């Protein structure tokens, strides 16, 4: 997702990921697209951890949300 990652993720959460620095600080457990995830900074990017059972749902949501950014 590259530089569009914060904008894409912001579509699924009320946490201000576009703030500088991000509102999550070092990391946060939060709801994204209606599911609990762990999001944290890693280098210049973000890492997202989800339970394996909800990964397909989140992957579909990310595809739809990414298409809406174009």
Any overview of this molecule?
30% of the residues lie in helices and 27% in strands. The protein has a three-stranded antiparallel β-sheet with strand order 1-2-3. The protein is built from two helices and three strands; from the N terminus they run αβββα. It has 70 residues and is an alpha+beta fold. The model has no long low-confidence stretch (mean pLDDT 80).
Please estimate the helix content: 25-40%
What Rg, in angstroms, do the CA atoms define?
11 Å
Contiguous runs where pLDDT drops below 50 for at least 5 residues:
none
Describe the largest sheet: 3 strands, antiparallel
The structure class reads alpha+beta
Oligomer: single chain
Beta-strand percentage range: 25-35%
Distance between the amino and carboxyl termini: 12 Å
DSSP E strands, number: 3
Average pLDDT for all residues: 80
Q: Sum up the overall morphology in one term.
A: globular
Query: How many H/I helices?
Result: 2
Helix and strand pattern: HEEEH
